[in-house]
Every structure is written in C-alpha cells, then in structure tokens.
Amino acid sequence: MKTLVLNAFSGISGDMFLGALCAVGLSKEALETELEKLGLHGYQLEVQEKTCSSIQGISFEVHLAQHQLKDIGILEGHHQHGRNFHEIQGIIEDSALSPTVKKNALALFTQVAEAEAVVHRQSVAEVQFHEVGALDSIIDLIGAAIGLDLLGIDQMIVNELTDGSGTIKIAHGVVPVPVPAVAQMQVGTQIPIRQRFDVKTELITPTGMAIVKCLANAYDRSVTGVLEKVGYGFGQRETGSLNALRASLYNSLLSQQDVTQEQDQVMLLATNIDDMTGEQLADVVTEMITLGAKDAWVEPILMKKGRPAYKLCILIDLQQQAAVERALFTNTSVIGVRHQLMKRTVMQRNIKQVSTRYGSVHLKALRYQGVEKVTFEHAELHELAVTHQISINEIQNNILTDIKEQDI
Ligand SMILES: O=C([S-])c1cc(C(=O)S)c[n+]([C@@H]2O[C@H](COP(=O)(O)O)[C@@H](O)[C@H]2O)c1
Ligand code: NI
C-alpha cells in the first residue's frame, strides 16, 4: 500500500501539491498526456528544479497563453466571468480520463463550488468561479486527481496543516486569512488547521484546501512502512520563511521491517460489531493498518439475539494499544475492546533490494533454524506483470533466475 504523507507546515496550494508530487516521482510528460484528455488548450506546464533555504525541490506553474489571460480578464485588469460549475463538470465528464480521476476531480470542484455558494449566498449552479475558474486552477485541481492516480497512491495523510493570518486582497476585495472559501470548507469537519500569526498572508488556498478535504484519508497521523522518497513543492508566495509542501512516499507493503528475534510478543485486540456497514468496516481496517497495526481483519460471526455481525481483529505491538483503542472508540461504534497478549514465533526477515532484468526489486529473505526462503511483494510483481504483459509466475521465475548468483 502506498501512502503519501504531506507535511503542510507552510500550507498548501494546487501548485505546491503538484510540485510536491513531481518531487516524489510524478512525471511531467505523463501528467501532460492525461491532461490532454480534457481537450483544453492555451496553457503550458512549467516544472522546474529550484533551491530554497538550501533545499532542493520543484516549482510547478501553469502558464496561460495571452488569449487565455484576456479571456479571464487579467489583461484588462479586472476579472470577467469565469467558467461555471456545470461547464467544468461537462469538461471532466466528457473527457477520456479514468473513472477514479473523474470522480476525484468532480469531488474537488463540487467542494469548491459548495463553499463558494455558501460564502457568496448563491446556488451551486450560479457559482461563477473567479480565480478558480481560470484554466490554471482547472489544471491544478484535475492535475491533483491525475497525479495521485499516476503515482498509485492508496491513501494520503496530511500533517501540520498551517495557514497564515491577517488579510489579503483577492478578486472579491480584502478578505481575512484563512480566506472565506477555506474557512467554509473547514465547517463541519475536524480538519485541524494551525495558524501562523507571524505570517501575514494566505498559505492555504481554496484549491489546496479542496485537495486536503476531498483526498486526505487522515490528519496528524504517523505512518509505518518504508519511506521511499521525500520531495518538496515550492509555493510562489513570499512568506518570510521556507514556503514549501513536503511530500513523503511510504510503501507499507514493505512495512514488516527486519525482524531479528525468533520469538516476540504481540497483542490481539478484538471486538464484536453488529451496527457498522461493510464499507465502514473496510475503512476501519485501512485505518488500523495506517496507524501501524501488524494486521487487521474482520471475521463474520453470529452474535447474541441471532444477529449476523463481525469480529474486528487487530494485531499490534504492545505499545500501540492506547492509540489504537482510542482510534476505535473515536471512529467506530465500538464501546469495548478485548485484548490478549500472545507469544509469536517468527522467521527472521530482511528486506533487500536486488537487481534484476526488470530493475531493482524488493524481496524478503526469511530464515528460521536452518529453513530459508524468499518472498516478493505481490503488488510489485503484479505491477511488473502488467508492465511487461506476462504472468506473475513468469516474472517471479525470471527474478529468481536473475538473483541466483547474488548473495542474499
Ligand atoms: O475564485 C474563487 S472561487 C476564490 C474564492 C475565494 C474565497 O475565499 S471566497 C478566494 N479566492 C482566492 O483566489 C486566489 C486563487 O485561489 P486558488 O485556490 O485558485 O489558488 C487565492 O488567493 C484565493 O484565496 C478565490
Ligand atoms: Ni469566492
């Protein structure tokens, strides 16, 4: 499972998000190819390596052609009507983008439209996007959905979401920070926004907030797994300090890090649930894995009063008990949890990267009292099988041949 963790210590905008995605491996060309499916013209992506505060990162910008600037009124010095929600919906729905990208892109625009509608006391259909309707913002929002899809991100965690303070001048006039659309998107959520009172400008734009609200699965949460890449997307505003969004890409499929003891202790948490849907339970299992559980699963059971129900089981390290129980009480209908300490016999394991005809591949080398075996990450084999159009078995056999002579 791939997890993207955003450290939004200096806020988030569409450009910062796409810059951060490029910094952890999103290809500009692949993004452009997908964006072409919208059939929009008159823009260019600029993805540039930059150094700020001695840190290397990416500056991402969408440049509009002169006629686009004229269309949205920027060359005339005033803002004409942009596109409305219905038009943008049509552009997305009529495109050849993947269903997931379309769903996320529509969710992002709906989010902004609903916030704008409340702020300006209009119906969603009446909302005329001003800055957000300009082509660069369309590219930012749809690009965000495309970027996550291209990188194969399964979940996104946003940490330290920070805005500035004071007021800024935008097309509506002078508004307070967080700007009205951002403040509105926060309503009814528990999205934690800190404020820096020494930074007198906007750090979270409506585009950035929509990305956070629609695409993040959790906030202020640590994640286990192998940290594969860290990158920075720079913001364009001068804030007086490093204006960047840090993205960290974790692979939790590789999270069973090296184990060097043959006997260890784990805790099994269990609770019976008869009042949550399958969809909700699947989310809880994902959340438990995100929190760092070794495993989490549900078993079908028949409970008291003949109720078909589920037993939710979570295998954890002892020190995770308090955090996991807290998450269960907070986010599920659970009111009690059973816990059991267990001894476990484990094979010693080492995660290694080996070079093969397919490039570098991860493997787990397992040992227990003279028994030795090697396993691969299924998702990695699957990806290679899809890329090379051959079966997973063939991929695995070829890798085994390639590593025969290597010292594992
Ligand atoms: O155009 C819209 S919808 C808009 C609304 C608001 C409100 O808070 S209401 C604010 N802004 C400002 O425009 C720029 C660009 O925003 P992006 O999200 O497109 O980066 C930014 O300063 C917003 O605060 C726009
Ligand atoms: Ni507005």
Secondary structure elements and their pairing?
Blueprint (H helix, E strand, L loop, with lengths): L1 E6 L6 H10 L4 H8 L7 E10 L2 E10 L1 H6 L13 H9 L5 H21 L15 H17 L3 E5 L2 E2 L3 E4 L2 E4 L3 H7 L7 E2 L10 H10 L2 E2 L6 E9 L9 E8 L11 E11 L4 H14 L3 E9 L3 E10 L4 H11 L6 E8 L2 E9 L2 E10 L2 E6 L1 H11 L3 H12 L5
Parallel strand pairs: 1-4, 3-10, 4-9, 5-8
Antiparallel strand pairs: 1-11, 2-3, 6-7, 10-11, 12-14, 12-15, 13-14, 16-17, 17-18
This protein binds the ligand O=C([S-])c1cc(C(=O)S)c[n+]([C@@H]2O[C@H](COP(=O)(O)O)[C@@H](O)[C@H]2O)c1 and nickel (II) ion.
Nickel (II) ion (NI) binds next to helix 5.
Defining traits:
seven-stranded mixed β-sheet, 408 residues, EC 4.99.1.12, Ni_insertion, nickel cation binding, lyase activity, alpha+beta, 33% helix, Pyridinium-3,5-bisthiocarboxylic acid mononucleotide nickel insertion protein, binds the ligand O=C([S-])c1cc(C(=O)S)c[n+]([C@@H]2O[C@H](COP(=O)(O)O)[C@@H](O)[C@H]2O)c1
